[in-house]
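Holo prediction — NAP.
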Amino acid sequence: MNRRGIGPSGGMEVSVVGFGAWEAGGDAWGPNESDERVVEAMHAGLDAGMNWIDTAEVYGKGVSERIVGKAVADRRDAAFVFTKVAPSSEGSGFRPDQVREAIRASLGRLGLDFVDLYQLHWPDETGIPVEETWGTMVALRDEGLARYVGVSNFDRALIERCEPIGRVDSVQNEYSLLIQGDRREFLPWLAQRNIAYLAYSPMAAGILTGAIRADHVFRDDDWRSGRRDPDEEHPEMFRPGAFEENVSKADRLGELAEKLGTTTATLALAWVVASSPNTLAIAGSRSPEHARSNAAAGELDLDPDVLAEIDAIFG
Ligand SMILES: NC(=O)c1ccc[n+]([C@@H]2O[C@H](COP(=O)([O-])OP(=O)(O)OC[C@H]3O[C@@H](n4cnc5c(N)ncnc54)[C@H](OP(=O)(O)O)[C@@H]3O)[C@@H](O)[C@H]2O)c1
């Protein structure tokens, strides 16, 4: 699989497609079939060339981290582990003491002495200045508890507040053929600074795989149904009307994929990777078959004609 670097002079060499473990939490996409099946999916991805797994303290309130811990227990050398701390009240909180407590708890669940990348999951809205939190992240990196530190769901302005305190190694934001907001300005800006970009929901949470039809009924406990949490709005990509339109675009991507002898998901992931020299795709799954096929996307280079055809579909 093709690789790119995270950190100064590309210090950590990572596969361009990695394994996403939000699903493994078992509380947002319907329950896990079993821990063993999820571990099998992680192993399938690693065996097929992925060399990192992305998790978070909030995924299943620690369940995902525990499963990742099981998956890497006998193959730590083959897998970099990335996790995140979230603001209070969903997560541990962003005060320096809370972040320190959070990484200790995550390391305990993962069964590790250090993580390879520690990330702020989303900006704090409780009034804790990002400078204070970022100072602690940088200290954790200096102390060796995290080899690299990054942010998620951050924009340029927030990163510019962090940078004077210490280097931001990575940004993890939503990015796919359906959500291209970061494409034109943010990605080139990050590339100039050699900040890695980890694209989440690169297959638009399943829409860009061809596996979801327009008449699909999501389980009530699947966040995509819009019924999992009464406080949450119906997710935009899955809102009636928008959803059917998105599935129709995915169908057109599927036709192109067939012509090229590949799959819809592979093309969606390869497009994300082709978006900038510092982009990585986080492919979420609990299926060994899907993980294997997603890893193969990291070996596909798309030529300019194909990229133009894809752009014509997604405008
Ligand atoms: N930082 C953040 O705020 C944030 C937010 C969202 C996600 N993330 C991270 O990004 C990762 C990926 O994003 P995501 O999970 O939201 O969306 P995604 O990777 O775009 O899509 C995942 C969905 O696609 C299905 N799928 C995957 N590969 C497939 C294939 N080859 N064929 C058919 N279906 C396939 C999965 O089901 P199966 O299990 O059946 O494969 C799952 O339902 C997460 O796991 C998490 O690590 C971060």
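READOUT: Residues 20-23, 29, 54, 121, 152-153, 172, 200-206, 209, 211, 265, 282-287, 290, 293-294 surround NAP (CB under 6 Å).
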